[in-house]
Design brief:
The chain is α/β, with parallel strands linked by helices and about 500 residues long. The protein has 14 helices and 16 strands.
Length: about 500
Amino acid sequence: MSRFMLIFVYVLMAGLLPSISVGQSRSVPNEPKTRLVVLTDIEADPDDSQSLVRLLTYANQFDMEGIIATTSIHQKKRIAPETIHQIIDAYGKVQPNLLKHEPGYPTAQALKTRIKKGLAVYGMGGVGEGHDSEGSEWLINLLDKPDARPLWVSVWGGPNTLAQALWKIKQTRKPEQAEKLYQKLRVYTISDQDDSGPWIRKTFPNVFFICSPGYGYANATWRGINTTEPGTHPEFVSADWLAKHIQQGHGPMGAQYPDVAYGMEGDTPAFLGLIPNGLNTPEHPDYGGWGGRYVLEKPAFKATTQRMGPADAPAEEPETRPIWTNAVDSLYTSALPRKSYFEPAEPTGPKSIRTTIWRWRQDFQNDFAARMDWCTKPYQEANHPPVPALAHADKLTVRSGEQFHLNAAGTTDPDGDSMSYLWFQYPEAGTYPGSVSFRPYASNLYDLPVTAPTVDKPQTIHFILRVTDKGTPALTRYKRVVVEVLPK
């Protein structure tokens, strides 16, 4: 061993070097990464650039397998891959610093090889014989890979590049081979931004599809990212907050985050629910998470009366099969940042599809702000999320009236920060129709006794552990415990 190596080992053993790897290894989940492809009509609205900046700060959390420039109803004859390259160039300047905080950030060079082009053609005009593109061929290649993980396609504009890939698979593969590829897909579209989205849903009934259908955006869950109501922490989406925490003083990535024009990051919910934070459960959109909550049903047909897009949007038609679509929840105070409570929470304000995103706003905005800090700050000067733990399984079975414990023993924080614990019921995610009282106990205990309610048939109750550190900005992670309550 060289003299230099001996000195390095002595310094490391003496604790004179920051143990960054320890903090990193504890803050990155061990489960397989989600495969992700983005289809974006970037340059139709500044919000695509905003969403791409946020996504890249989480690039280590995904297998980023493609970013495809597409058209949409707002940008019918143009694609803008050059803007994707520009933002990834900025990412490349900060990627070495991001690696000081968590491992796994891909190089800019690797990401740039995955930037692809769809056709500069609108909607179904770009689907069929002679309409292959490097984007549609790339999607087929990704589906053909011998990888058992689902392929998530996050659609920020029109999905006609995906539609062309599916059209070609149908034309060139045996039905049983094609069906295997369809079943690997997980699609989330930001409403309908061309006529190929409804075509996919009708033509490929077994494709997993999340959507607030229609060409008007008023009735869309994803608008919870940038709309506000009392109690939804509007200050976290204000121009002042964005300037201070995202844009200014955060290096090349902050400089790439444009001012809001029509609405902040309207495309972000298409991937926000995939971030591994202990709450999000991608295969169960009905469980709810940062990207909203969705139910599997055939939505009742209601033609859009107020369209946000051009007047020449295609005529809307009824859905032909169940899709994952808007869930209507109440804004429960127990799901908002809160120290403790003794009584079951009461709904505040009217029910709303956007509540399913609003309730997590403070947490996901602080998380983004921290990652923007990672772009420029050393490890010791930034905050990193806590690592919740459970002293029991995340699925429990109990009887009516039985007392059980929700216990977060073993929870840690990589920065050594003090942590706050909050246990709450997520009522809409379970089947039990009532609210569970934690009385006479405070809910901010790491070990919380709970008495199961009386039921006359098996019911499920979702309890969420919310752990928030006292760093700056305060960061939150979760554990979900699903309790099945059986009759006596």
